[in-house]
Design goal:
about 350 residues, 10 helices, about 60% helix, about 10% strand
Length: about 350
């Protein structure tokens, strides 16, 4: 028979606790709501945080570029090795076929020797080490077996090298994916901060950045600084032709660039191949530690980890692709922590 007990009523103490907790929650919500406006970062604070995030994104970008360059290099090396292996296997098959034909001829005449029988059923490496076996072979057969041995060793080495590089390629692709996500996360975080600004504040920041950026047609007084060389001047002039092009991480032109993408592209237009990333470009020529000794077309390296690069433009100016949200432009060399110049 079912029980029809009357539901137990909550005690007065329990009601009091619940009521108090609810009141506290309401009070905390009200405090949070009231505090929210005062906790909103100012325009300058947002700009400072965004600039820091953009710098961190550029650091990650150069690591991304390095991983991407390594991936492309490994893919080319693996392709070359695989081609070598394929050709080597064809040569090995031809050598084996020639030995097989000799064995077949001996078999038809009933004179096939034991050494060829052994070779055709196993690996020839053991046989040439034995003088008694070598004595049973003709000079031509010995030479053929030596070639087969050598080709087998080469193929084994090539296959082992390809295997190692394929493993390296897999880890490089993983690293590339991580760095890409890191860059994207930094940029997304920066955009989230910018979205907290009012329309008027965004307009003020945009105006300030517009003043920093030079129009493509605007001339800058670069002084009378001599060029580092004819090639350096040609590279610098190629970079000048891209003033106003947007910064895009990982881009190497011709319509958008990141910092090292601009410098490597510009030198390529002058017929000079330099490394892709800023840290490698820092070691691509003679270092110039005095700003007063810099010449137009010298590379200029910034920050302690060497993650930013541009061209020296003369008169204390650099021409570079600064960061996300900007374009290729002139800027004072003192706007960033100068490390040294590089004369290619």
């Amino acid at each position: 028979m079912a029980s029809h007990r009357r539901p137990k009523q909550p005690s007065r103490a329990r009601v009091t606790v619940l009521t108090t907790a609810a009141a506290a929650a309401v009070a905390l919500s009200a405090q949070a709501a009231n505090a929210a406006p005062s906790e909103k970062p100012s325009k300058d604070e947002v700009k400072s945080k965004v600039d820091k995030l953009y710098e961190e994104a550029e650091q990650a970008t150069e690591k991304y570029n390095g991983a991407k360059e390594k991936q492309e290099k490994l893919q080319k090396e693996i392709s070359t090795i695989q081609d070598d292996v394929a050709r080597g296997q064809e040569e090995l098959n031809e050598l084996r076929e020639s030995i097989g034909l000799a064995a077949a001829a001996q078999y038809r005449t009933g004179t096939i020797d034991s050494s060829l029988q052994l070779f055709l059923s196993s690996n020839p490496d053991d046989y040439l080490d034995k003088a008694s076996t070598a004595d049973q072979l003709s000079a031509q057969q010995v030479e053929s077996l030596k070639k087969i041995q050598e080709k087998q060793r080469e193929l084994a080495q090539d296959r082992a090298e390809a295997s190692d590089k394929l493993k390296d390629l897999a880890s490089t692709r993983t690293e590339l994916g991580k760095k890409k996500k890191e860059v994207q996360a930094k940029l997304a975080e920066a955009q989230k901060l910018l979205n907290t600004l009012t329309a008027a504040e965004k307009a003020e920041l945009a105006a300030a950045d517009a003043r920093a950026s030079r129009d493509a047609g605007e001339r800058v007084d670069l002084g009378n600084t001599a060029p580092a060389s004819g090639r350096a001047l040609a590279a610098f002039q190629a970079a000048q032709s891209k003033i106003g092009s947007p910064y895009v991480y990982g881009a190497t032109g011709p319509s958008s660039f990141d910092c090292s993408g601009l410098t490597s592209w510009a030198f390529a237009q002058a017929g000079v191949q330099i490394p892709r990333i800023s840290q490698d470009q820092a070691n691509a020529g003679t270092r110039i530690y005095s700003q007063s000794a810099l010449k137009v077309g010298d590379l200029v390296i910034f920050y302690g980890d060497l993650h930013h690069v541009g061209f020296y433009a003369g008169n204390g100016q650099v021409l570079h692709a600064p960061r996300t949200g900007t374009v290729v432009r002139y800027e004072s060399i003192n706007n960033m922590p100068f490390q040294f110049g590089v004369r290619i």
